[in-house]
Inverse folding.
């Protein structure tokens, strides 16, 4: 499943860009919300998302913000399907994740490249999606850190052992060249920003991403 991150889209034509990637096969729209504190960049908040109206594909909010508790309700009101918070920002993770579900959304948790996967074990029953960052968040167009991929494999084992139905998603530097490594590591959902929006033909790109991101091999290729 391909989730198109609008961070690298042309914001002067945002609605057009979103329609174009949906027509080209994007399964979801990924919204990178940055506050200039947790990450050194600013993007947009709920009013802009509200302007997008109802889309034919789900929108996922990736909150790279301090105090995520202040933004859960406003993002739920925009109709986002998933709200993802960062493990590094939540002091009361169970409360926050439970609140996301109570608001009618799926609860996502993300972790930075240097954050150990073990921190997620206690919250697995409260989580629907784990978003593994393969770059340090803040900017689109960065190079994937391949050393992070074994964490996905580790997490897929942890999730399988737990028995909870948690989706593993990967974000950062995913493109036509890197997607199959992420898939072999165990990811099934891929956030792609510049790897789509900075290419000339979205249809060809997304078709290739889907072919290369599809793996029938369920045994992890990477040793942990
Ligand atoms: C990074 C964001 C990503 C970003 C990915 O902070 O969370 O979603 O848009 O962009 P690419 O695919 O260009 O690395
Ligand atoms: Zn993101």
């Amino acid at each position: 499943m391909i989730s198109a991150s609008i961070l690298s889209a042309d914001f002067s034509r945002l609605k057009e860009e979103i329609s174009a990637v949906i027509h080209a096969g994007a399964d979801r729209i990924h919204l990178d919300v940055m506050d200039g504190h947790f990450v050194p960049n600013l993007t947009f908040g709920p009013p802009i998302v509200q302007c997008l109206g109802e889309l034919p594909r789900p929108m996922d909010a990736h909150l790279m913000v301090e105090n995520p508790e202040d933004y859960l309700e406003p993002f739920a009101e925009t109709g986002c399907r998933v709200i993802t918070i960062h493990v590094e920002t939540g002091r009361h993770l169970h409360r926050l994740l439970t609140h996301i579900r109570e608001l009618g959304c799926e609860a996502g948790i993300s972790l930075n490249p240097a954050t150990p996967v073990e921190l997620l074990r206690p919250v697995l029953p409260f989580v629907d999606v784990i978003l593994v960052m393969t770059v340090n968040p803040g900017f689109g167009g960065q190079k994937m850190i391949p050393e992070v991929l074994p964490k996905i494999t580790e997490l897929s084992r942890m999730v399988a052992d737990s028995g909870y139905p948690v989706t593993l998603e990967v974000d950062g530097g995913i493109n036509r060249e890197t997607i199959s490594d992420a898939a072999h590591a165990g990811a099934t959902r891929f956030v792609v920003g510049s790897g789509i929006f900075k290419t000339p033909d979205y249809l060809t790109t997304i078709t290739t991403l889907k072919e290369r991101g599809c793996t029938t091999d369920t045994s992890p290729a990477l040793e942990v």
Observations:
- The helical segments are 14-23, 46-51, 72-77, 93-102, 149-162, 179-185, 194-197, 202-213.
- The pocket of zinc ion (ligand 2) is lined by residues 5, 30, 32, 62, 171, 191 (CB under 6 Å).
